Hints:
Butyryl-CoA Dehydrogenase, subunit A, domain 2; two-stranded antiparallel sheet; Butyryl-CoA Dehydrogenase, subunit A, domain 3; oxidoreductase activity; alpha+beta; AcylCo_DH-like_C; AcylCo_DH/oxidase_C; seven-stranded mixed β-sheet; Butyryl-Coa Dehydrogenase, subunit A, domain 1
Amino acid sequence: xDFSLGEELEAVRDLAREIxxxxxxxxxxxxxxxxPTRTDTRLWADLASAxxxxxVLPEADGGAGLGMAGLCVLLExxxxxxxxxxxxxxxxxxxxxxxxxxxxxxxELLPGLASGEVxxxxxxxxxxxxxxLTPRTRATPDDTVQHGPRxxxxxxxxxxxxxxxxxxxxxxxxxxxxxxxxxxxxxxxxLTREPAETTTHDxxxxxxxxxxxxxxxxxxxxxxxxxxxRDASVALAAVQVGVAQGALRYAADHLGGRxxxxxxxxxxxxxxxxxxxxxIDIDAMRVTLWxxxxxxxxxxxxxxxxxxxxxxxxxxxxxxxxxxxxVQHVHGGIGVDTDYPVHRHFxxxxxxxxxxGGAGADxxxxxxxLTGAAxxx
Length: 377
């Protein structure tokens, strides 16, 4: 398997790295963390004007058609700098609309997403031990409507990322025909939002839906929910690879420059072993991530892609959290000083490790997939 990026993806990586390095400075991060929305709108506009948002979307919708591969390159660079912009929910949602939406839905949402003027978010999680593939939120058809939204959603969605500024929310809900994906306007009647601050300082929201009108994206039971959850898992793995790499860079710089007994801390064997474990874990995270991206290349087998995505997510959850823990440990007391930037990598690593379920939930779903494949064969 060839894991080289190719010229187009290398160009995306290099441009994204330059923008994130220049814009997502520790000083700017502190400024955004105290803002009402916790989103760096200037950085979002810079990414849009550079064509990086559109690079992910299909060419027919105003993008460059780089898809999940382009998105993962972009997200990895974001993770390195823990830049506070809602890339993964907006672009994963955009790809879902591109794959399953009607021509009208695509025309209303995707060109604006590429230009940075329109931003969706996704509502995939619920309170309690809920599997994102089987949401408790219910969608019922509304036969009284002749034009416009013809579904009504009732339920609660937890920790919806970056709802401020998002015009639409892609909500997963259960129907009589199976799970479905629905597009809800952020100001729809019957939708209320409770602000919720997360570990990463992102200002998310809990959504309460009480008969909120919604449009179906695709047909309930057609696999759109499974595809969205799979893409979100791969996207989160990509962010976590970047977070872990950025944390390790801080550790290497810190230990190389700090002396003890007249020697750099980096020369002590106990520290070297800790960083070697981080390096090995990050390499495994990167390999499984790009194996999952490769499994999504058209034409692809959905079962194989689901398994690869869960493997990548488990490595990102388990190894990513281990890496940021070790990095904070080798920094000593400075690792928990909020004036020193490495603490953000720990917070991001912790948050990502619980999104869409932790390592145990990943293994449970992976085991069910493998058992089902074995039984079917």
